[in-house]
Design a protein that fits this description.
heterodimer, A: mainly alpha, 8 helices, 64% helix, B: mainly alpha, 72% helix, elongated
Chain lengths: 165, 211
């Protein structure tokens, strides 16, 4: 298998990470399309440097978060490949999830998007049930620090849910 | 919350699809040049700055070499210092842009973001240095003849203006920093979306320090 094929199969396997991260950091659908393209471009750029000591997911999360957090600070949100609005790199309709099917999801997504950028990353990793060790590798924090911070953010979110109810 | 997220994950797993053709197109892309990631107005400003320094530098050097005795020394030295200051600001700006481009995004989030934010927020340095030129705009038109035979009142006004501009330039050089971002004068200078990324980078840098 050539490099491109390996890359595409890794991408296929972890596409959910890209979507979830992009969706949490970018609400505008058109900008999100550019953000996902930028993520894939940066992943491809650093594919040669991928270190096998880490899982693919660790590497993907790092790049996805770094691109997303930096995205709005960029000089220009560039279009890597110009495509019609209907044609996205990842195709999924948020509206296909109804509130009846997954009650409370919209609210959770809203609360997450209101968190500070670094807290948001931690929360997404927690919700994806990543181990503290992997979260530490992705974020560059100690495991103890992560436990404390996640507990604080969780309490904060719980409070918000309680206030709504 | 985790169960809620799992249901979302399940939905994504079932319906999210990747566009292979588009992904493959991205893998065929050549590396992006620095200029391609910049807005046209910034490229133009950078280009205009380089032409200004290049052309100005050429003229001033030649005046120094071949017409030193014939031109006003006030003009010559003011222009030379102005060009040196602009050149320093441009070099810092370009150097930072290149460093930003080279940051490794596959490093842990806090390390990468800290590096990127420090680099972006330090673009304020270019603005700080440029303000040091202020007094030079009040001295370049002076001449030895004007000093000896000119109107004393006008000369006094000029000296006051030069001192005021020098003070303003130095004051801005010292005070343009993140701590003053909420001050009215700071917002006036750095208003507009061009500066938003720099200001936000400084805020993120604070968050990272708290982490």
């Amino acid at each position: 298998m050539d490099q491109e094929e390996i890359f595409l199969s890794v991408l296929e396997k972890h596409k959910g990470i890209l979507y979830k991260v992009a969706n949490s950091y970018c609400k505008d659908a058109e900008d999100r399309k550019d953000l996902i393209q930028e993520m894939v471009y940066q992943l491809w750029r650093s594919f040669d440097k991928y270190q096998e000591q880490y899982k693919y997911s660790t590497w993907i999360y790092r790049i996805a978060f770094n691109v997303s957090i930096s995205f709005y600070r960029k000089e220009n949100s560039r279009k890597i490949v110009s495509v019609p609005i209907s044609n996205s790199l990842l195709n999924f309709s948020e509206t296909s999830i109804s509130e009846e099917e997954v009650p409370g999801l919209k609210l959770l997504q809203q609360f997450i998007s209101e968190l500070k950028e670094l807290d948001r990353a931690l929360m997404l990793l927690y919700l994806d049930e990543k181990s503290h060790k992997e979260i530490a590798e992705i974020m560059g924090l100690t495991e103890t620090n992560i436990a404390t911070k996640i507990s604080r953010i969780k309490n904060n979110l719980k409070q918000r849910f309680l206030t709504i109810k | 919350m985790i169960n809620l997220w799992k249901s979302y994950d399940k939905k994504l797993e079932d319906s999210l699809s990747i566009n292979r053709k588009l992904s493959l197109e991205i893998t065929k892309m050549k590396s992006y040049a620095l200029l391609q990631s910049m807005k046209p107005i910034k490229i133009f400003t950078l280009f205009a700055g380089l032409v200004w320094v290049g052309l100005g530098g050429y003229i001033v050097v030649n005046l120094f070499r071949y017409a030193y005795a014939d031109v006003s020394h006030f003009f010559l030295y003011s222009a030379a210092i102005q060009l040196v200051i602009t050149a320093i600001a441009l070099i810092i700006y370009i150097y930072q842009l290149v460093l930003i481009q080279q940051v490794d995004l596959s490093e842990p989030v806090l390390i990468t973001q800290s590096r990127l934010s420090s680099l972006r927020s330090s673009t304020l340095w270019a603005a700080r240095i440029l303000f040091l030129q202020l007094p030079l705009w009040t001295t370049f038109y002076l001449s030895e003849n004007l000093l000896q035979n000119g109107n004393t009142a006008l000369l006094i006004i000029n000296v006051i203006l030069t001192l005021a501009f020098a003070f303003a330039g130095l004051w801005l050089f010292v005070n343009i920093k993140y701590e003053n971002r909420e001050k009215k004068w700071f917002k006036m200078i750095f208003q507009g979306k061009e500066w938003n990324p720099v200001i936000k980078s400084m805020e993120l840098l604070r968050d990272i320090e708290e982490y």
